[in-house]
Amino acid sequence: MTLGATNATLETASAIAPLVGKVALVTGGTAGIGQSTCVALAKAGAYVYVTGRAVDPERPDLYGGAKGGSETVHQINEIGGKGIFVKLDVTIEDDWIAMAKIIKKEHGKLDLLLNNAGRGRRKPIEQLTTVELWDQIDLNIGGAFLGMTHCWSLLAKAKGVVMNMNSTAGQGGGVNSTLYGSSKGGMGGLTKSAAIDAKAAGIRVISVHPGSTWTPGMQFISKVTEQEYRDNMARERGGTPLGYPAYPLDVAAAVIYLASDAARHINGIEINIDGGASAR
Amino acid sequence: MDLSVDRRGALGVSALTLAGVIGGSSAQAAGPSLTGKRCVITAPDSPLLRAIQAALRTAGATVRSVYPADMTDAAYDAAFLSGPDRPDAADVVISIAIPERNGGVGKVKFADFRRVVADNYGRNFMAMKAGIPLLRNSGGGLYISITSTDGRNGVGGAAAASAAANGIVIMTKSAAIECASKTDRVRVNAILAGEITDRKGELNPGQVRAEDVASAVTYMVADGSNYLTGLILPVDNGGAVI
Fold first, then answer.
1. Alpha-carbon gap, residue A104 to A172, rounded angstroms
2. Which of B85-89, B152-156, B159-163: highest mean pLDDT?
3. Which domains, and CATH codes, for chain A?
4. What is the per-residue pLDDT across B104-132, written as a single tens digit (0 to 9) for each?
5. A19: chain B residues, CB-CB within 8 Å
6. Using CB atoms, which residue from B24, B33, B229 is nearest to A242?
7. Nearest to A88 by CA among A32, A27, A149, A42
8. Does the CB of B170 have a partner CB in chain A at under 8 Å?
């Protein structure tokens, strides 16, 4: 039996810990890490609110949007889990107010808020615009802020946990990362301060930092195939010591553990799922 | 505002209806199964050691505990290579090294400083040296260094503990880089434990129970965590930020 050189599967990720009776909300649950995490959470026994925008205006035909949300719910149904899709743009406060009302009416509590929705504007700083600046602030920082603000009482009721989906890009500098990296850095500061504020309410707040992860979004950005991406990582072992990418279920496994009762005394941390990249 | 609720999956069947019929039958009833995993733990006796042994065994793993009297290669090789069922191979090796706080710079004597560093930093090094070949022999595996949160934050009155624990953190990261190759397939992580307590009720930030650390160990050993290496996981009830 070997523990090396493998990625998580739906079976192994969902087996990390039981989440029966827990209620979860995942933003950006329409594709990539969010979609796989929704399905894994449901497989572990949680009721999952899959959320996302009705349409991804930049990539309407690629993935995401209500179509992606419907696909996520379909996958949850297929494995006998429980969940629904709710349209939610994390940058719109009225959407959050309505979302919280739905959860309050249907469950009266929220055990996990996974602020996963996000996007990277990766360009040299001189090519970035103030429109893109505000887009990154609103989406990567403001979305998490609004989510925590409007779900706070529901989380307190459950003594639940907030996880903000960050990135290893938020922990250090990188090429073409002045805006994306710094927005995730801001999200990291928000997360640490929220962890302090949350103690009185019994809420835990955790920062999740995936490294190079193969997702539809990564394919869109990198313009390479999955095999080319893997080959590049294998050649450039200096970046990620394991030499191959994470997949969304590797991140989902960490989310499931940290959302479980087994992790009730883990709080205010940053967890890296990066194949050793941040060990350098 | 455009916010609506879609309770239908792609099959056009209500998710709530399906949930009612199936009733979450796929839900996992317990934690991960670790059946078949061969674990070696090196540590002096403590409630933390016993909690980790119990958690691993409950999950189905086999556990062999060793703690050589002497810090020599011969003593470590003899201890790690003893026991039944292919003692030359293991899937998991765990070192527990929680250094005591025995005084700050200017107060602690060098002999006492050196003893704490040797008993923790030194023994983690010896455990890696003896244990990582066992992991290679099984085709890959996981090494876990368990030390204290003194490896992350400066703390008064704990010169030796800080040196030992932070040394273990960097040793862990370096070993993770060294051993990640396809030929080694060995992953290396660390857990930084807060103050271990058996008190009942709500704990203060920085305090945890031994069972909390044991749960983190089973998470790292589980197959779903196979992408983790070089991870430094604090289990300290928010002690770093709260």
1. 38
2. B159-163
3. 18-211+246-274 (3.40.50.720)
4. 999 999 999 999 999 999 999 999 999 99
5. 27-28
6. B229
7. A27
8. no
Strand partners, B41: B65, B94
ipTM associated with this complex: 0.91
Q: B183 and chain A: CB distance < 8 Å anywhere? A: no
Query: What secondary structure does DSSP assign to B192-213, as a single string?
Result: EE-EE----SPPPTTEE-HHHH
pLDDT in tens, B155-176: 899 999 999 999 999 999 999 9
Measure Cα distances from A198 to A35, A100, A155 in Å. Answer: 27, 18, 10
- DSSP letter for each residue of B113-177: HHHHHIIIIIHHHHHHHHHHHHHHHTT-EEEEEEEEGGGTS--TTBHHHHHHHHHHHHHHHHHHH
**Token reading at B27:** 């839900």
CB-CB under 8 Å, A17 with B219: yes
Give the residue on B whose Cα is nearest the Cα of A244.
Answer: B227
Domain B35-235: give its CATH architecture: 3-Layer(aba) Sandwich (3.40)
Residue keyed to tokens 């070993």:
B175
* Interface with A, mutate which of B1, B3, B135, B137 (most A CBs under 10 A): B3
